[in-house]
Structures are given as structure tokens and as C-alpha cells.
User: Which sequence fits this backbone?
């Protein structure tokens, strides 16, 4: 489920082409799915790179689920 803050972050990206440095990790997961849905490769790449950089053993299965989407 998409929250108001996640939608706001998505729209800010659409208008500005960049993301704030203070976005929670959960937003990147939602943004990745939205980028896939709306065919925004640059946003997918940004989210993917951030998720890979922040990946640890406790969220590896969540990242695997996202990988199956792509």
C-alpha cells in the first residue's frame, strides 16, 4: 500500500528528476515498483542502486522479492 509520503516522493521525483537524501528505505521499495509500473528506468536505477548499497542480511528476502518484479 502506498502512503501519502511515498506518493509525494514519487511526484516530487516526476517534477524535479531527483530524490531527497532523507527518504526512508521503505520508500525506495515502493518507488522501485512504481518506476517499473510507469516505465521510468532512471528512477528504477536510482532505487536499485540505493537498495543494493543499503542491503543487509535482515532485508535480503525483501530485496529478492523486488528482484522478481523486474
Assistant:
Amino acid at each position: 500500500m502506498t502512503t501519502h509520503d511515498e506518493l509525494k516522493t514519487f511526484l516530487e521525483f516526476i517534477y524535479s528528476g531527483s530524490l531527497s537524501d532523507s527518504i526512508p528505505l521503505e520508500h525506495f521499495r515502493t518507488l522501485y515498483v512504481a518506476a517499473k509500473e510507469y516505465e521510468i528506468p532512471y528512477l528504477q536505477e536510482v532505487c536499485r542502486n540505493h537498495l543494493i548499497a543499503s542491503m543487509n542480511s535482515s532485508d535480503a528476502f525483501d530485496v529478492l522479492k523486488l528482484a522478481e518484479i523486474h
